[in-house]
Amino acid sequence: MKIVEQRPEIPEAGTKCLLTQAHTLYFDIETTGLNSRRSHLYLLGAMWKENEQFILRQWFAEKPSDEEKILREFLTLAESFDSLVHFNGATFDLPYLCNKAAYYEIDNTHLKNMPATDLYQLYRPLKQILIADDMKLSSLQKLCGYSRKDHHTGKELIKVYESFLQTRDPETQKILEQHNYDDIAGMVWIEQLSPLLNLTQGHLSPVKTEISSKEPDILDFLCTFENTIVPAALSVTSENISLTLTANTCRLQVPLLTGEYYYYYKDYKNYYYLPAEDRAIHKSIAIYTDPSARKKATAETCYERKTGTFIPAFSPVLSQAFQTKPKVPDKYYFLVSDAFLYDTESLKTYCLHIIRSLLSHTR
To answer: Residue 211: phi, psi to the nearest 5?
Structure first.
């Protein structure tokens, strides 16, 4: 078994992420197959923070029988940490190591009970806005500025390792180690995507709102984020709503819709509908109207009409949420008034709602 230890360079943005704090252990494994019973572990890498530096240690199996030694040393190291970080390790790396530990009758209770963060699962909800070919680790690393020296797939490296066992070529070994190194060191780089998750959780502060002079039918929201910087310019467009993220600035462009919309009262049993006026009024007022000119309101007729300029939304996040007639699920409209445009809290609530909706798969 060969042990290699290095001090990787980590971007400043990465060193400030929550996941890179002390007592957190990053890891990644390389195996000769997916089935733990018919393959073996030939390389395991782990990285942690110590005295403000990152240490990346790799255990390399110079022969298949080194597998047990590698596993024991890693499990001993893991005892000193409180949590794990991996990329898609929940479905492969962790089960593989646990199965191997059971085979060698090694106690891995601590490993199984450690809280773990799967970066793949963490960032998967951002798939629709990331300008990346896919959600593979290498694609996300490229997006965040990490330049991999290795360009092999794990499957391709199985043959490379088989070649090493026959030739013992040091250069071949370096190819295997580089792949594992890039996987682990690059995990911290993709943590620069964390601010996008923070954004969907409400860390947003609108600072300016204006109607574009070039596009009179568009309402522009210019926002800055609270303690948030995104790693690259990202954008998403949905239903004529455009969101662009650059550094710590967000530009949200929403269509201005001119027309007639309807505000539906929820307690329709306390209202009467006036067919001649096509609107509903409360019972306390209806008693002064001609009984023949009114009838009990229903959920569909209990509304107030309003003509003006509106902006769209996906839920009634503000007061006076208007809809169309008939109602369309998840389609709401808010009247654009001077009071709205100068109401900081309303602007923040609206922008946050739209951004969350565009970044979320649940809308």
So the answer is: -95, 125
Residue reference for tokens 């809809």: 323
Tokens at residue 163, please?
């070649």
Instruction: Tell me whether residue 252 is exposed, middle or buried, using C-beta atoms within 10 angstroms of its C-beta: 0 to 12, 13 to 18, 19 or more.
Output: buried
Q: Which of the four pLDDT bands, split at 50, 70 and 90, describes residue 231?
A: low
Structural contact between residues 140 and 193, judged by C-beta atoms closer than 8 angstroms: yes
Residues listed for the chain: 363
pLDDT digits (tens, 9 = 90+) for 2-22: 999 999 877 665 555 555 566
pTM of the model: 0.71
Residue 38's alpha-carbon distances to 35, 122, 190, in angstroms, are 5, 31, 33
Looking only at the bridges linking them, the beta strands covering 218-225 and 249-255 are antiparallel
Q: Give which of 74, 147, 83 is closest to 114, Cα–Cα.
A: 83
Please tell me whether the peptide bond between 326 and the residue prior to it is cis, using omega within 30 degrees of 0.
yes
Residue type, 332: Y
d(CA 363, CA 360): 6
Cα–Cα distance for residue pair 58/80, rounded to 1 Å: 17
Q: Residue 255 region, left (φ>0) first, then alpha (ψ -120 to 50), else beta?
A: beta
Which structure tokens are listed for 299?
């959920």
